[in-house]
Amino acid sequence: MFEIFLEKINNYRNIGVISHVRPDGDCIGSQIALCQWLEQNGFKATAFNDDDLPDNLQWMLPFFEIEKPDEMKFEGCDLFILVDGNATHRFGAFEEWHKNRSEPVWIIDHHPDPDDGFGVAISEVKASSTCELIYRLYSESDISLIDAEIAKALYTGIITDTGSLQFDSVTPDTVEIVADLLRRGDFKPNEIIEIIYSNKTLPQIKLLSKALKTIELYNDNQVAVMYVTHEMLGDTGTTYSDCEGFVSYPLSIENVKAAILVKDHGDEGIRMSLRSKSDVDVNLWARELGGGGHKKAAGAWHKGPLSDAIREVLTIGSKQL
Ligand SMILES: [Mn+2]
Does the pLDDT at position 241 exceed 90? Predict the structure, then answer.
């Protein structure tokens, strides 16, 4: 998988590694592990992200410094590698800066339908996560270089991108990789799972209780819609980032094939998170709304208002049910 990558990487020295905006466990885990691999192999790596890490990933910061985009630092790089995204617009300030530049851009990613024009594209839709791909980079070069930090970073990405090994993207290989990471890193699953998931605040749980009351079923009870309004955030003293993971509740209702969390972001518009636990491809729904993602997890924006966004996504979805 990484033959061409391993051959061509030797033409470069200073490599900028960028993870996508609104970072998650997979993009940060793969970014850190890739930067470590580059430095272990004699390259200079610089990690960039436009946004701060969410609280539950901050513990990984000491593993590798992640910097804010900086033109001077971009100019010092002779190659850029984008991780966990397949279109430059997912990578914040880098896109605008790179428009008039000629440094090559590579991707390592598992989202469907990548953009054209990447010098090297490791694009594996079947991979559970980008972290699974970075593990393969190690296994195809020198697996013994995986130390405890790298093992924890890769484990985090695989766990968060697979709903703790529950999604159908999980294969026997994924589970074997996880077992190997646990051995190499000498840690137990709960050490990391508890940091990632057992960090809910009381206001978050109060917000969840309000959101759960909004759940309605449509299309013969096959689609569940749940929403969060500005007012609900104000009442509970929470922000949109506190809705992380909410969509799994409507998705867990029996017979529901797809679930949508609709968040009213006021002037910014309406944000929709779509999930599927069936053959329903919510990436198609999201794409029709100008968004995208994976078959089972996708997102899109709508100009609003909330009721229009719900009506439109249900109309799009009903074509597939
Ligand atoms: Mn991912």
Answer: no
Q: How far is the CA of 291 from the centre of ligand 1 (A)?
A: 16
Q: Sheet holding 258-264: strands in order across?
A: 216-218, 223-228, 258-264, 270-276, 297-302, 292-293
* Cα 269 to ligand 1 centre (Å): 25
CA of 27 to the centre of ligand 1 (A): 6
Q: Which part of the chain is CATH 3.10.310.30?
A: 202-318
Q: Is the pLDDT of residue 200 over 90?
A: no
Kindly give the distance from the C-alpha atom of residue 234 to the centroid of ligand 1, in angstroms, as a whole number. Answer: 31
Question: Is the model's pLDDT at 168 over the cut of 90?
Answer: no
Superfamily of domain 3-197, CATH level 4: inorganic pyrophosphatase (n-terminal core) (3.90.1640.10)
Ligand 1 centre from 128 Cα, in Å?
7
Residue 55 confidence class, pLDDT cut points 50, 70, 90: confident
Q: How far is the CA of 231 from the centre of ligand 1 (A)?
A: 31
CA–centroid distance, residue 220 to ligand 1 (Å): 32
* Distance, CA of 239 to CA of 245 (rounded, Å): 14
Say how many Å lie between the CA of residue 100 and the centre of ligand 1. 28
Report the top-level CATH class of 202-318: alpha beta
Measured CA to CA, the distance from residue 64 to residue 169 in angstroms comes to 28
Separation CA 39–CA 7 (nearest Å): 16
Confidence of residue 294 (pLDDT cuts 50, 70, 90): confident
- Vertex 189, ends 209 and 125: CA angle to 5°? 80
pTM beyond cutoff 0.90 = no
What is the pLDDT, as a whole number, of residue 198?
80
- Does the pLDDT at position 244 exceed 90? no
